[in-house]
What we know:
4 copies of one chain form a homotetramer.
Chain A: H1 14-31, H2 38-45, H3 49-55, H4 59-68, H5 82-99, H6 102-113, H7 117-139, H8 145-164, H9 171-185
Helix pairs in contact in A: 1-2, 1-4, 1-6, 4-6, 5-6, 5-7, 5-8, 5-9, 6-7, 7-8, 8-9
Chain A binds a DNA duplex (31 and 31 nucleotides) through α2 and α3.
Amino acid sequence: MAQARKSIGAQRNPASEKAILDAARDLLAEQGLAGFSIEAVARRARAGKPTIYRWWPDRTRLLLAVYAGLKDEMVHPETGTLEGDVRGFIAHLFEFWSGTPAGPVIRSVIAEAQTNAEASAAFLAFHRERNAETSARFARHGLALDKAQAIAEIAVSYAWGQLLTGRRPNDAQIARLTEILIRGVG
Amino acid sequence: MAQARKSIGAQRNPASEKAILDAARDLLAEQGLAGFSIEAVARRARAGKPTIYRWWPDRTRLLLAVYAGLKDEMVHPETGTLEGDVRGFIAHLFEFWSGTPAGPVIRSVIAEAQTNAEASAAFLAFHRERNAETSARFARHGLALDKAQAIAEIAVSYAWGQLLTGRRPNDAQIARLTEILIRGVG
Amino acid sequence: MAQARKSIGAQRNPASEKAILDAARDLLAEQGLAGFSIEAVARRARAGKPTIYRWWPDRTRLLLAVYAGLKDEMVHPETGTLEGDVRGFIAHLFEFWSGTPAGPVIRSVIAEAQTNAEASAAFLAFHRERNAETSARFARHGLALDKAQAIAEIAVSYAWGQLLTGRRPNDAQIARLTEILIRGVG
Amino acid sequence: MAQARKSIGAQRNPASEKAILDAARDLLAEQGLAGFSIEAVARRARAGKPTIYRWWPDRTRLLLAVYAGLKDEMVHPETGTLEGDVRGFIAHLFEFWSGTPAGPVIRSVIAEAQTNAEASAAFLAFHRERNAETSARFARHGLALDKAQAIAEIAVSYAWGQLLTGRRPNDAQIARLTEILIRGVG
DNA sequence: ATTTAAACGAGACGGTACGTCACGTCTTAGT
DNA sequence: ACTAAGACGTGACGTACCGTCTCGTTTAAAT
């Protein structure tokens, strides 16, 4: 959490930006979307509300900025087999979601997207981008691209379904899903 | 929309209950969760706020009551084959969600469930109940119950994923998903 | 406080009337006008709200009924001298107001009279009636009636002023007031 | 009545404060305490409720603020004689109360003081302050201070008694009261 | 002896106001 | 020019009480 910061003159203060994004992310991680208000972020970041509104036009855009900040961390290793990659992809999603603020943040973005068209568009765009990467990876093992896209979509949808209902599959469930998907397109 | 209703004595007035639930459902259908406030429901239903709070302790519980009111309509025909039942189940979900207030209502419930533990529990319970029915139906065609449960879960998750991102699959996509699922457990 | 009472047929139940008036008086005595709501009276008297509204058309009229019930107790002895009667009258007012629910009730009636024309009229009428009695008593000692009325009015106004500001004069102050009044009209 | 006002920065907007106090005072003058609600004041002043609650913690404190705003106007001329000053003081009270919002405001404060300890304390404090001034003035004509205080208290109590019961004395009645008081302490 | 009619406790009804919270906008004073 | 601070109007939150209404029960009075 940030200490009191003075202005650094007629230029954007990167410390403020970071303090705001950190506060927003931490609030989402700790209290979910319910605790995520501009006022709470400003209090926690020791920032003025207009400073937040200057850079992010509303609550939704700040949420999306936090969400965008997660992307860099979303990498997972290749295994060499299709089965290993699919299983690893799914398993990694849940690890990522539970070990970082990512889970609450994504839940919040999805919730926000049900109310806010901009959040919806941003989330869908990001999903498509990610799915292109994922299916490209799956296709490296000789799978047709359309089938790779299909199982990537199904896998991610399944993972969302678990996340949104507060569940997390065990290894056996992940293995079964993987098997169904690979046999299904085999 | 309801006219002003008097009390009918020391008992719940079904006309008021209906007017409130109708108003709530219509607001969700027209404006989504953002337009769904107790004040707005009271105005539209020509009801007093305390009348709403008397029967539904908060916004979430009223939302869940609207959601529960959808159950009866959620039926779809049997086709005689596993492939037909799976495909029909998925197709029916999207028809149901787009032709009735059900789509916006379910989107709202899922969004609410990300914030509210009660909504989360209610949604998960309802989902499990529905999935038991669905997988039982799939199992009538000779499929093992655990496999039937798995593909029911996957199918519903896929449908939610489409709904929550504002998409709707065409018949070919539904057919492909159906094929993957059935071959996957075959 | 009353037990649950049944109807005694097509006639007013005196037990209910008493229970309601007692509850109203006690609430005024204990919590003042702030705690005096029809709902609170009904709860305390174990009466239905319509039973109250059947006999007293609104909150003000029930307050006035409690006030009217005080009249009988408002008697004080004659002393044989003008000075004794004036002093005794004033002293008696404060004893009456502090030893019974009368103080809070009269404070409440005066407060209510600032908002409600009916309460104002009722209070003024009662005041005039009382003042006629008081000044008649003072006049028995040879004082002209108009002078007796004047000092009765002044004495009561002074007493109200003390009551409404939460004060109570000691004996010396009462004696001084008495002296001023009697010498003033002497 | 005020137009919509913007914030003028991180400081109190005097225009809003004035609009709110004016609206409160006018509501009291026109409708008395019954019409005096925070919601009504906010509507009339075109102010937000939180703006009112930011500066005055509740209805009572806003009422007392209106009451305090009357002080400056409560001045009356000296006449050179005790009789003239006493009579002028009493007469002035009624002129002040009938020609300005002061009458309804004071009636409201007294009513509120019967319910609210804070209002009671504030009213009593203001009364004592005023009475010190008044009795000091009376004492300039050679009257002992304790006697001056006594007749000031009696005079004000009499005036309150008239105000609270919706009466107003004519000149002869004021003259008679003055005579009684002066002869009483003579 | 039976029926009628009104009073009873209970509590739901549509409203209004309460006092609180967060929204997104605006201006100040300082760096 | 950018900062922290915080006031502004708006509007929803959940609660209390208003005065009205109907329910089903009870019982005295009228048949």
